[in-house]
Write a structure and sequence with these properties.
The structure is a single chain. The chain is of the alpha+beta class. It folds into three domains: 168 residues, Bifunctional carbon monoxide dehydrogenase/acetyl-coa synthase(codh/acs), Chain M, domain 3 (2-Layer Sandwich); 177 residues, 3-Layer(aba) Sandwich (Ribonuclease HI, Chain A), CATH 3.40.970.20; 39 residues, no CATH class. Helices cover 28% and strands 21% of the residues. It has a four-stranded mixed sheet. A four-stranded mixed sheet has the order 2-5-8-3, with helices on both faces. Strands 16-14-15-17 form a four-stranded mixed sheet, covered by helices on one side. α1 crosses α3. 43% of the residues are buried. Bound molecules: iron/sulfur cluster. Iron/sulfur cluster binds next to loops.
C-alpha cells in the first residue's frame, strides 16, 4: 500500500516547484506580512519522543478564513540512537523539501522567514488539516532519513504560543550558527553542495564552505558534512575542492567542475568571494540580496523581511527577481545573513569597505562583525532613503568608497574620449557584454552566449514606470 493512500492529495517530487498564486490560495501561513513565524528541528532523547504524534496548538486549517493569513510555527522533534544535535539544521531544512512534495502546498524560505500557501483545489480535495500534512512529514522523515528512529511534529497557530516560542527559536539558530564559525576555507579539502533548490532554480547549486553559508542561511559547512554522510543520495553532496585557482576571488577547480556537471554546462565558473563577473548563483530562497549601486561604486544589502524600497528605490522582491532563478548576474548576489559575519564576505570586492547601505535590522544583527572603524560609515534606511542622501552620507563619513570615486574620475574622462573617437570612426561601443545573457520572454528563456549588444539608444525604466505609462 502506498504510504500516502490516506492523504487526500497526491504526494511526490513532481509537485516540487509548484507555485500558488494569491488568487488560488485557501490560506497563507507565515510570509512577509506575519512578523513572528518559525520552523525548528530539535534532537531529543529517545524516551522523550512519542513517535508519530502530531499536535496542533491553535486553530486548524479548516477553522481558518478563506484567503486569510495566519502565523505558524512548526516544531519537528526527532530522536535516534546515533542522532545528535549537529544534525538539527539538516533535519530542519528537509521540512522545506518534504512539504513541497504535497500537491497544492507551497513552502518557501526557512527558519524565521517561512512562507507557506495551501491552494484552494487541495483544500477542496480534503486537505483541510495539519494532521495529514504532519503525517506526510513524519513518513518522509522516517523513510528518507533512517537515522531518525522516532519523530513527533507540532504545528502552532496560536499567536500567543508562537510569541512564547519565537525568541527561543531565534536563540537556537544563533547558537547553531555560532558553532559553525571559526573554521576557514583553506583548512578543509572538501566543500559541500546542495541542489535542493533546483526544482525552483534549475541551474542553481549552493556551494557551502566553512566561510560561506548556504544562500538560505539554513545549512552550514558542518550541516553539509553531516547531511552528505547520513544521506549520500540526498540533495547535499561533497565537493572535492580541487586546485585553488584564484585565492582572492575564491575560485576552485573542483567547484567549477561540479557546477558544470550539475548545471549541465549552464554555469562553468564560480567565484565565491565576489558579487562581480562570476558570482555564486542565486536560487530564490536566499535570506538577503546584495546589489551594486553604480552611483557610489558600492554594494547595498537588503533582507527579505525589509518593508518598502531599498536605497536605490527598488523593493526586495524586484532586487531578488534580478538575481533569482539560478543565474549569475554581475553585481547581484543572493546570500545568507550569516555570510556577512564571515571574513570572506565579498572579500575580493573590499569586504565591508565596499558595503554602503544595509537596513538597520540587519546591521544590528551583524554589528559585531563589521570592522569597528566602519560601523558608523555604513548607512541604514535612517541615514539615507535615496542615492543623493546616500552620497552625502558617505562623503560626510568619509566611507572608503569615496576614495574610489576620485580614482575613477580620471579613467571615466578617458572612456568618454574613447567613446567619442569610436563613434566618430563609425563604430559603437557595446551597451551590454556578457558571457551568458538570459532573456525571459513569453514563457521561453533565450540564452545568448558571449553576447555583445549594440544599440543607438538605451532607455532604462522601472517596471512600475512602464506600467504607469501604458
Ligand atoms: S538555498 Fe542552497 S542550501 Fe538552501 S536549500 Fe536551496 S540549494 Fe540548498
Amino acid at each position: 500500500m502506498s504510504m500516502f493512500k490516506d492523504i487526500p492529495v497526491d504526494v511526490g517530487v513532481i509537485y516540487e516547484g509548484e507555485r500558488i498564486r494569491r488568487n488560488d490560495m485557501q490560506v497563507e501561513l507565515g510570509g512577509p506580512t506575519v512578523k513572528e513565524k518559525f520552523e525548528l528541528a530539535k534532537v531529543k532523547p529517545l524516551d522523550q519522543i512519542d513517535d508519530g504524534k502530531i499536535t496542533i496548538i491553535g486553530p486548524d486549517i479548516k477553522d481558518m478564513k478563506e484567503g486569510g493569513v495566519y502565523p505558524l510555527g512548526i516544531l519537528v522533534e526527532a530522536a535516534g540512537a546515533t542522532l545528535d544535535q549537529g544534525l538539527e539544521g539538516v533535519i530542519e531544512r528537509r521540512i522545506h523539501g518534504y512539504l513541497n512534495y504535497i500537491e497544492g502546498f507551497m513552502h518557501l524560505n526557512q527558519r524565521y522567514d517561512i512562507w507557506i500557501r495551501l491552494g484552494k483545489k487541495a483544500f477542496q480535495k480534503g486537505l483541510n488539516s495539519f494532521e495529514p500534512i504532519g503525517k506526510v512529514l513524519y513518513r518522509l522523515f522516517k523513510s528518507e532519513l533512517p537515522i531518525i528512529e522516532k519523530v513527533q511534529i507540532t504545528f502552532i497557530t496560536d499567536p500567543a504560543k508562537i510569541r512564547e516560542m519565537y525568541s527561543g527559536a531565534l536563540a537556537e539558530y544563533e547558537a547553531r550558527d555560532a558553532k559553525a564559525r571559526g573554521l576557514k576555507d583553506e583548512e578543509v579539502d572538501k566543500f559541500y553542495g546542495c541542489a535542493l533548490c533546483q526544482s525552483f532554480a534549475p541551474s542553481h547549486v549552493c556551494v557551502i564552505t566553512p566561510q560561506r553559508y548556504s544562500n538560505c542561511g539554513a545549512i552550514s559547512w558542518f550541516d553539509g558534512k553531516a547531511s552528505a554522510s547520513i544521506d549520500p543520495k540526498g540533495p547535499v553532496f561533497a565537493i572535492d575542492r580541487g586546485e585553488l585557482l584564484n585565492a582572492e576571488k575564491g575560485e576552485f577547480s573542483g567547484v567549477n567542475e561540479m557546477a558544470k556537471k550539475r548545471t549541465m554546462g549552464e554555469v562553468n565558473q564560480i567565484w565565491l568571494y565576489t558579487a562581480f563577473d562570476h558570482p555564486h548563483t542565486s536560487c530564490g530562497c536566499f535570506e538577503a540580496v546584495a546589489f551594486y549601486i553604480p552611483e557610489v561604486d558600492g554594494l547595498g544589502v537588503v533582507q527579505r523581511s525589509f518593508k518598502g524600497a531599498a536605497v536605490n528605490g527598488l523593493p526586495f522582491s524586484t532586487l531578488a527577481d534580478s538575481a533569482a532563478g539560478g543565474r549569475q548576474i554581475d553585481g547581484f548576489h543572493g546570500m545568507s545573513i550569516e555570510y556577512m559575519r564571515s571574513k570572506k564576505f565579498f572579500a575580493a570586492d573590499g569586504g565591508w569597505n565596499r558595503i554602503v547601505w544595509v537596513p538597520k535590522e540587519v546591521k544590528e544583527k551583524v554589528k559585531d562583525f563589521i570592522p569597528a572603524e566602519l560601523v558608523d560609515k555604513v548607512a541604514t534606511e535612517e541615514d539615507a532613503k535615496n542615492i543623493d542622501e546616500l552620497k552625502e552620507f558617505l562623503k560626510a563619513k568619509n566611507h572608503p568608497v569615496v576614495a574610489r570615486w576620485a580614482a575613477e574620475e580620471a579613467p571615466a574622462a578617458e572612456a568618454t574620449a574613447l567613446q567619442v573617437t569610436e563613434e566618430a570612426a563609425g563604430t559603437m561601443m557595446p551597451v551590454a557584454t556578457a558571457g551568458t545573457l538570459p532573456i525571459m520572454a513569453g514563457g521561453f528563456k533565450i540564452i545568448l552566449k558571449d553576447a555583445k549588444i549594440y544599440a543607438n539608444k538605451v532607455i532604462i525604466t522601472t517596471v512600475k514606470d512602464s506600467k504607469d505609462k501604458r
